C-alpha cells in the first residue's frame, strides 16, 4: 500500500486538483484508492460532489475519536473511497493543541481501517499550512508529492517545506520520503516557468544524499494550465469524467502512468 | 487612517500580489502607507526585496511583546513602510493559544505606533487560513478587501469567510466592514470567469442589510492574469517599478484609483 501526502504550504498551487485527479486516475486503472480530505475548506470533497454538511460524518469525527475511518469514507461509483472534510476540521488545530501524540491520530486510525479494507493507494490532500493537520498527513504517509507552480514564491517555500518533512522524519515517521514533485499550472513558453524549472533542478542536484528528499524526482509530465481543470469541480467530477479529451485529462493521465511506473522501482 | 485587511482563506488567489501592489500604488500617489506582512511565508516582504532572516526584527517580535511596531517596520525608498515577517511567525498560532485577548495584540500595537507616526493607509496581507493571525488582522482593521479568483472554489469559500468576518464584528471589532472584493487572476473571455462573476453579483444582491458585507462592492477593475505580475517578486519590486507599461500595472493602477475614490464616500 502506498500512502501519499500531497502537500505544499503555498496556497493555490494545485494540491487539490492533483489529489483528486490522481486518485481518480489510479481508480480508473483498477487500483483500490482512498482519498482523504485534510483541508477544512473541504475542496477535495466538493470537487467530487460530496457535500459534507450537517450530520454527514467527516474526518473531524475521526480526529475527535468518535468514528472510525471506515464509518466515514464514502465509496463512489468509480470504486474510489473518499473521506470527506468540512470547516469543522479547522477546530482541530486548537482542540488538539494539548493532546499527547496528536500528530499520529490519523496514522493510527488508518492502520486500523486498512487492516480490514485493503487499499493500493491512500492519497491525502493537505491544507495550505504546516499545522497539525499537515503533520498528521506526514506522520501517516510514507511518500510526499509536492505540487509546485513554477513561480518565484514556489521555490522560496520549497526549502521550508523540505525542512518540515525532515523534522517529521526525525521525530515522528522515519520512513517518510519526498518522492515526487509535480509541476502544476504550467505555462509553457514563459521564461518564468523555464527559469524556475532550471532553478529547481539545480536545487535538487545539490541535495545531500541522506536528506528525505534525495530520491525526489520531478515528474516528466507537466500539468499545463487548462481551464477545463478549473471547471470540473463545479460539476463534481474528476477531469476524466468531465473533459476526457482535454489537455488536462491527458496531463493527469500522464502523471498517473508515471506514478504507477514508480511501483517497480519503489 | 484606513486600516485594510486583505484576506481570503483560499490559497493562491492574489492576496499578496494585491497587498503589495495596492500599497505601492497608494505610496506613489503620495499617501503615507504601512504594509504589514502577517503570513509566515513572508511573501509580501520577499516581494519587496526584504529578506527578514537572522536577527532582522519582524512582526513575530511584536506578537511576543519584545518590540514595538515602530522598531520593526522598514522604510523603503518609495516612502512605503513594511513590517516584515518570516517563518517564525508560524509559532504564534500555538504560542498564543492560551493567551488572554490574543486576538487584539496587533490592534493595540498598531494604535500605539500610529500615535507618533501617522499613516493614511495600513494594508495587512493575511495567510491562507482563518487562524489567530488573520483574526488579529480583522481585529486591527476597519475594512476588509477580499481578492477572489473567479473559480468554483472561490465562491464556495466566500460565505465561510463572510461568516468569520461577522463573528469578529460581533465579538471583537464592531466597526469592521467588508468594503471591497477584487477579482484577481481574471481570465477574460472564459465562461468560468463570467459565470462566477454573475454568481457573485447574485450572492451580494441577496445580502441582508445588516450584514458586515452589505456595503461591499466588487471593484470595476479586473486584475487580469499577466505573467509580469508573477515575475515582479523575483526582482523584489512592485509591478509599477518592474513593468510600468504592462497590463498588470494598468490594472493595479485602476484599483488604486478606485480605492482612493472611496475616500469621499467612505
Ligand atoms: N492545471 C490547471 N489549470 C487551470 N486551473 C487549475 C489547474 N490546477 C488547478 N487549477 C485551479 O486553480 C485553483 C487552485 O488550484 P487548487 O485549489 O487545486 O490548489 P490548492 O493548492 O489545492 O489550493 P489551496 O492552497 O487553497 O488548498 C483552483 O481554482 C483550481 O480549479
Ligand atoms: N494577476 C496575476 N497574473 C499572473 N500571476 C499572478 C497574478 N496575481 C498573482 N499571481 C501569481 O500567482 C501566484 C499566487 O498569487 P499570490 O501569492 O499573490 O496569492 P496569495 O493569495 O497571496 O497566496 P497564499 O494563499 O499562498 O498567500 C503567485 O505566484 C503570484 O505571483
Ligand atoms: Mg486545496
Ligand atoms: Mg500570500
What can you see in these coordinates?
The structure is a homodimer of 266-residue chains. By secondary structure, chain A is an alpha/beta fold. Helices cover 42% and strands 13% of the residues of chain A. The first copy, chain A, has 12 helices and 8 strands. Chain A has helices spanning 15-28, 43-47, 59-63, 69-72, 92-95, 105-116, 132-140, 152-171, 191-205, 227-231, 239-242, 247-261; strands spanning 2-6, 33-37, 74-75, 81-83, 121-125, 143-148, 177-183, 217-218. In chain A, helix 1 (15-28) crosses helix 12 (247-261) and helix 6 crosses helix 7 (132-140). The longest helix of chain A has 20 residues, at 152-171. The termini of chain A are close together. Chain A binds chain B through residues 9-13, 16, 41, 43, 46, 87, 90, 93-94, 97, 127-131, 149, 151-153, 156-157, 160, 187, 190-192, 195, 227, 230-231, 233-234, and chain B through 9-13, 16, 41, 43, 46, 87, 90, 93-94, 97, 127-131, 149, 151-153, 156-157, 160, 187, 190-192, 227, 230-231, 233-234. The structure holds adenosine-5'-triphosphate (ATP) (2 copies) and magnesium ion (MG) (2 copies). One adenosine-5'-triphosphate sits between chains A (11-17, 39, 43, 127-128, 184-185, 223, 225-227, 229-230, 233) and B (10-12, 128, 151, 153).
Amino acid at each position: 500500500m502506498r500512502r501519499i501526502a500531497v502537500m505544499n504550504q503555498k496556497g493555490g498551487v494545485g494540491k487539490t486538483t492533483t489529489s483528486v485527479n490522481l486518485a481518480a486516475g489510479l481508480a480508473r486503472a483498477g487500483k483500490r484508492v482512498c482519498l482523504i480530505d485534510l483541508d477544512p475548506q473541504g475542496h477535495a470533497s466538493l470537487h467530487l460532489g460530496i457535500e459534507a454538511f450537517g450530520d454527514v460524518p467527516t474526518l473531524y469525527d475521526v480526529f475527535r475519536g468518535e468514528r472510525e475511518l471506515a464509518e466515514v469514507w464514502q465509496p463512489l461509483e468509480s470504486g474510489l473511497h473518499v473521506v470527506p472534510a468540512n470547516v469543522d476540521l479547522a477546530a482541530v488545530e486548537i482542540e488538539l493543541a494539548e493532546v499527547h501524540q496528536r500528530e499520529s491520530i490519523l496514522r493510527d486510525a488508518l492502520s486500523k481501517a486498512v487492516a480490514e479494507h485493503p487499499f493500493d493507494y491512500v492519497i491525502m490532500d493537505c491544507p495550505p499550512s504546516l499545522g497539525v493537520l499537515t503533520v498528521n498527513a506526514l506522520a501517516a504517509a510514507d511518500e510526499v508529492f509536492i505540487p509546485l507552480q513554477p513561480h518565484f514564491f514556489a521555490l522560496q517555500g520549497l526549502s521550508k517545506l523540505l525542512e518540515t518533512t525532515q523534522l517529521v522524519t526525525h521525530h515522528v515517521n522515519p520512513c517518510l520520503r519526498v518522492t515526487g514533485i509535480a509541476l502544476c499550472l504550467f505555462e509553457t513558453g514563459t521564461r518564468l516557468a523555464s527559469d524556475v524549472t532550471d532553478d529547481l533542478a539545480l536545487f535538487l542536484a545539490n541535495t545531500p544524499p541522506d536528506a528525505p528528499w534525495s530520491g525526489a524526482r520531478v515528474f516528466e509530465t507537466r500539468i499545463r494550465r487548462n481551464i477545463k481543470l478549473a471547471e470540473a469541480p463545479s460539476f463534481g467530477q474528476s477531469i476524466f469524467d468531465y473533459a476526457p479529451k482535454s489537455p488536462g485529462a491527458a496531463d493527469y493521465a500522464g502523471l498517473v502512468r508515471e506514478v504507477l511506473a514508480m511501483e517497480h522501482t519503489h
